[in-house]
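Hmm, what's this shape?
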Amino acid sequence: MATEQLTPETTEQLTPETTEQLTPETTEQSTPEMHKQQEDEQLDVQAQAALQDQEHVQQEAQQAGQPAGVGAALGGTLQQQIAEALQPVLRDIQQQMAQSVRQQMEQELEPVRQELHQQIDQALEPVQQELQKQIDQSLEPVRQELQKQIDQALQPMRQELQKQIDQVLQQEVESAVGALFR
């Protein structure tokens, strides 16, 4: 069988021992067919399980003295109640997971964020220095003009103050000289 090509009929006859004897060539040739057959078998198993569950519910309902449809309705109601009861729990889990993911992303992004800030600061430093230099250069004429205006505004006060100092000094000198000659 190891050298034969697999067909749907032969795949039904496979046992664990014969499956081990399959060569890569035979499995490559039959893989799509085998997958289809496996899917069909799984669907059949699921359908049978659903029928058995339904029969089980009906049997329990009959044993309880209820019509068969009542048991199915109770099962459906129970499933609905369970689903409704689980909704808040599922929402909480989703929120916790989302929060956890956000926190983890923030933690993982923080070193990257800090590195980017540092790189931006380093890249902007020459620009900041150049701007400061331009500001200083553009403000220098303004500073000089303000200094000139301040000096001009203070000039009369300086002159008056100097005049008063000179008078006080003159009086002190005259007093000192007068005291010497007495």
Notes: Residues 1-6, 16-30 have pLDDT under 50 and may be disordered. The radius of gyration is 50 Å. DSSP finds four helices and no strands in the chain. The CA atoms of residues 83 and 155 lie 93 Å apart.
